Amino acid sequence: MSALMMHSFKLGLSGSRQHSTVRTAPRCLPARSRGSVRRSCRSTTRHVVTMSANRQWILRNRPDGDIKKTDLELVETPIPAIEDGQVLCKNMYISIDPTHRIWMSDAPQYMPCVELGEIMRAVSIAVVEDSKFDGLAKGDIVSGIGGCQDYFVADGATLNKADPSLPPPEQLGPYSMIIGLTAFYGTTKICAPKAGETFVVSGAAGAVGSMAGQLAKMAGARVIGTVGSQEKADWLTKELGFDGVINYKTDDVAAKLKELAPDGVDCYFDNTAGPVLEEVLLQFNNNGRIALCGLINQYNTDKIGVKNYDMILMRRLTVQGFICIDQLASMGEMLEVVKKGIADGKIKYKLDIQKGLESYIDVVNMLYNGSNQGKLMIEV
Ligand SMILES: NC(=O)c1ccc[n+]([C@@H]2O[C@H](COP(=O)([O-])OP(=O)(O)OC[C@H]3O[C@@H](n4cnc5c(N)ncnc54)[C@H](OP(=O)(O)O)[C@@H]3O)[C@@H](O)[C@H]2O)c1
User: Fold this and answer.
1) CATH architecture for the domain at 3-170+347-379
2) Which SUPFAM superfamilies match (predicted)?
3) Pick from 53, 203, 257, 304: most CB atoms within 10 A?
4) pLDDT tens string 33-92
């Protein structure tokens, strides 16, 4: 997906449709062999569509703190018609990412924010329903910025055909730009851990963090993760082979980091910023590297400064912020490494697939309260 494409999707229109609401029985699917899948197992409320129509989540207010029910509205609109060169797509899986909270704000950011009254932006995997674009036909699976809605219209040239050899949900997870490329670029190109070095990753049981840690293990590093629950800690040490885990909610982070990294830290893959970053800065070795990937600790708060910033000078650290959309040149290399890592059992992952477009607000908030288990998405 090109950066241009990130800006060029045409999203659906507004309108109406009839629907009713039913209760459905809980449904869970078994775990996959190398990746595991958690589907929403609670009883879910589902809209049954009785006419062809489009549901769309519209941003109504800029959230103040946590995302509230009143910040977005689910509206119903007609399915848009297509013109020459365009494709009508039906979303299958919508990627739910921490950056949604950034896009909802109008703070300075790496791409335009979502304006009030616009459809909430989201990356998705979709099936082509109708095409007036040579090269895409009904039934093709594509990826793009489909938005938080059932259907969208895009210029065909802005869509990527999905890889038919890979399951669609995985193409929002380990094999995606947002997860796979982010973890790969930050770990191998910025941190570049050498065998025997100590690599710390925050948000370590998350979609990006768990892959970053495993890539660092493959490079021969000693890997320490920070997480917010015992369940996540157990997964990292018992199944993924992390050398140590710190529960930032219950452990004394400074003491535990000293115990797990007695020779100091060489690399830090930062998904959170906040108190973990501030402590890691104090325990860095000279010439360490920080890949600044995300700041989830402060997405729902006003901007706050960083304590121990002086350690960047004292320890001669290199800090590089990066955004995956700028690193598409590494996509092929990432896919090669990640496919092999998964095939060899060196990379494991979890997909957290929640059901129903209508659950968007509850689902996106799972990222900020830590209740997601792996790559979060909605099956529409
Ligand atoms: N730079 C890029 O191009 C790029 C691309 C994709 C993602 N990202 C960033 O990468 C990070 C991880 O994204 P992801 O998609 O893999 O999400 P994720 O890690 O699967 O889910 C988010 C996790 O963050 C943790 N968290 C939430 N609030 C926290 C807080 N206040 N302090 C510490 N941890 C907190 C929670 O885990 P615990 O239970 O462990 O707290 C939660 O499960 C995010 O910061 C995201 O913005 C950056």
Assistant:
1) Alpha-Beta Complex (3.90)
2) GroES-like (SSF50129), NAD(P)-binding Rossmann-fold domains (SSF51735)
3) 203
4) 368 887 654 333 343 444 479 999 999 999 999 999 999 999 999 999 999 999 999 999
State the span(s) of the chain assigned CATH 3.40.50.720. 177-327+336-340
Please tell me the distance between residue 368's alpha carbon and the centre of ligand 1 in angstroms: 8
Residue recorded with tokens 């908030």: 365
Tokens of 78: 């007609």
Residue ranges of the chain that CATH labels 3.90.180.10 = 3-170+347-379
**Token pair for residue 201?**
């990753």
Pocket, ligand 1, Cβ cutoff 6 A = 97-99, 178, 182, 203, 205-209, 227-229, 232, 271-272, 274, 293-294, 296-297, 322-324, 367-368, 370, 372
- Look at strands 35-39 and 44-49 and give their pairing: unpaired
For domain 177-327+336-340, the CATH superfamily is NAD(P)-binding Rossmann-like Domain (3.40.50.720)
pLDDT at 11: 31
* Cα-to-centroid distance, 369 and ligand 1 (Å): 10
Which residue numbers in the chain have pLDDT < 50?
Answer: 1-33, 41-51
Letter for the amino acid at 353? I
Question: What's the one-letter identity of residue 154?
Answer: A
Give residue-wise pLDDT tens across range 340-362: 999 999 999 999 999 999 999 99
